[in-house]
Amino acid sequence: MPSHKRYGPLGKTVTLSAGLMLAGSISAQAQDIVVWGGFPELTDYYERVAEGMSDDYPDLNVIVEPIGLRDHEKRVALALSSGLDDATVLELIGSTANRYIVNDLLPPAPSGVADFVNDGENFEPFFRDTATVDGSVYGVPLFRGQGALFYNTDMLAEAGLDGPPTTMEEYDDYAAKLTQRDEGGTPTVSGWSLRLSGGGAGIAEKFWINMHQHGGSVLEQVGDKYRAGYANEAGLAALRQYVNAVSGDKTVSIDMPADAAAFQRGQTAMFIRESWVIGDTEKKAPDLNYDTALLPRGSIALPVNLYVSGGSDKAQEAAWAFAIEANKPEHLIWMLDNVGWLPNRVGVDYSGVIEAKPQFSAFVDLPEDYELFTLPSIEPINEILTRFAAKLTEAFADPSLAGDDEAIMAILESSAEETNAILDRAGILAE
Amino acid sequence: MLRRKKFLFAILAIIPTFVIFGWVRMFPIIETLRLSMYDWNLLSKNKTFVGFSNFSQLFRDDQFLDALTNTAIIAFGAMAVTIPVSMALAGVIYHRTRSRFAGFYETAVFIPHVVSLVPAAMAWKWIFDAKLGPLNAIIMSLGGEAQAWLFDPVLSVICIILLVSWQTLGYAVLIYLVGFRNLPKSVYEAARLDGASGIQSFLFMSVPLLKPITLYVSVVTLISGFNVYAQAYVLASDTQGAPGRLVRVLVLDMLENSFQNFRVGYAAAEAVILLSIVLVLTAVQFSLLRQKGGN
């Protein structure tokens, strides 16, 4: 008869403790890195990249923690100023990262990573420059936000419009023809959805894109200094166009559903946005008939790079390896196909995706004279745009401005004074 | 000797509490006061002493003045809504104490206070939605005109007042209920014998007798009103749909100045002003109610 040894409470405790210690030693061998992003739609992409590293880093544990962009920017500011424990891959827009780099809060990339970034066969100079400060590489370029016009092809056909608008005057004409109204004349489907409300820099950024089509720029660079560049004819034309759309032609109203959500639900006929809308629409409105078009003059291009901070040398090495892995062709093609953000790496064959989704062509087949611009890497950029946005939202909602160019210019001049005062305080105001 | 030992024990027992209080409560306040005198971008090792320059700039800053005005309107508005409504609700619930639904009434009123703020604000955002919201649907079914609740400069502030009041109401009702339960029953019986109606008893006896409770509720409501942030943030935010009008409030302005504009000293000066306002208003409320109570 077999004898069964009974363990008392002490024995159980010892066994449990030994088990926990063993588990602890196993987890201590595993390498943790964290990925912080401001674009939650990229979660699957980063998880896929992590899986791709499993052969070379079998004990690597990648924790992907994306949140909304504005909150992400706040947590990065807090974390970098107080220090990160874990090796963290940070997804940052180049102009945002610059302020951390000049304050020595982000380390330069190791030489192998720098060589990868500096290789002309991987990245064009525009994207290399956004990841480089004073000749040192600090980040690995990944993708960019670039705008194009999205338009509902069914609505254009119903309105008898052949092809997308190509000038800003045509944008107004198209918007008027595409707007659908109820019996009382109130718009129910906007002809051209504009960013008119909410808070933050995004409103001014969108205004900048439209103003660029009129030949202007919110900030003008003079040498290494800047000044407000919108209290002029281009600024007037852009703001007049917004005011006229809301209070003149009434092709859109402040309280109408807007942006990608409205486009996907058929509540707007046209809007300007980045390429992620293609991936998003595929998931949310797969039956929507739409196409994209180049903007009349050019577009903003906001390059997003991966940076590394915190953790041990070994963990940092794994984090940089993650940034390189993220740029492998198979992952980039997957990102373009499934998420829709435009990868920055050249020499990768994206043609399969572009053929299957011709809407991408307005983002990648760019004429030589198409002008791409980006936000300047200056410390007060967010404050300038946020304060300008506050003035713009008041102007958009003010019906008394319709047809009153003098009043519109007065708003632009007063806002430009504020912008110049901020630049002056930062010591970068151009004469 | 024993007395001295007891005293020493009491001191030793209280020291940890004082240390924790000093560290988590007093140190941040003192540090904020100090930072308000500096120009610091959060990232740099250098902090430049600028004296009261941050404060003088603030009073020339349209955005700050806008935030201050909005916050004051919201705080006083929420207090003006919360106190009478919570007192009346507490009165009704108290007089229905023997009802088997008494517990349900109390719980129903208190739930908004414990519900997480962001999902609650999201739900209200839908209620206030100009095109799809049930509020406009009800107004239109009654023959009224749909309102752009989250976009109109006045209505968007009213929406936040309603949301703040809805959240603070539960706590205020609970405190008033405690007050009602402690009121002397004999006074009400005497009043009833003298022919006072229920409403008269409420207005001329409950309301004055509940003054200490009203003082506490008004202080708590006002302070939470001045700290309003998430409500304004959620009602205005929507990256892909229809973001509402951003009602700028002090805490939102502070956060933006600290972590997006990297002007920590400037944001600290805002925090000092907010702290001063709350302290002054609390002192005024205490003195007013004490005076009236004394009279």
From TrEMBL, chain A:
Keywords: Signal. Gene3D superfamilies: Periplasmic binding protein-like II (3.40.190.10). It is found in: Periplasm. InterPro entries: Bact_solute-bd_prot1, SBP. The keyword Signal applies. It comes from the Bacteria. Its main location: periplasm. Residues 1-30 form the signal peptide. GO terms for cellular component: periplasmic space. Belongs to the bacterial solute-binding protein 1 family. This is Carbohydrate ABC transporter substrate-binding protein, CUT1 family.
From TrEMBL, chain B:
Keywords: Cell membrane, Membrane, Transmembrane, Transmembrane helix, Transport. It comes from the Bacteria. The keyword ATP-binding does not apply. GO terms for cellular component: plasma membrane. Residues 68-285 form the ABC transmembrane type-1 domain. The keyword Transmembrane helix applies. The chain crosses the membrane at residues 7-30, 72-95, 107-127, 154-178, 264-289. InterPro entries: ABC_transporter_permease, MetI-like, MetI-like_sf. It is a multi-pass membrane protein. It is found in: Cell membrane. GO terms for biological process: transmembrane transport. This is Carbohydrate ABC transporter membrane protein 1, CUT1 family. The lineage of its organism: Bacteria, Pseudomonadati, Pseudomonadota, Alphaproteobacteria, Rhodobacterales.
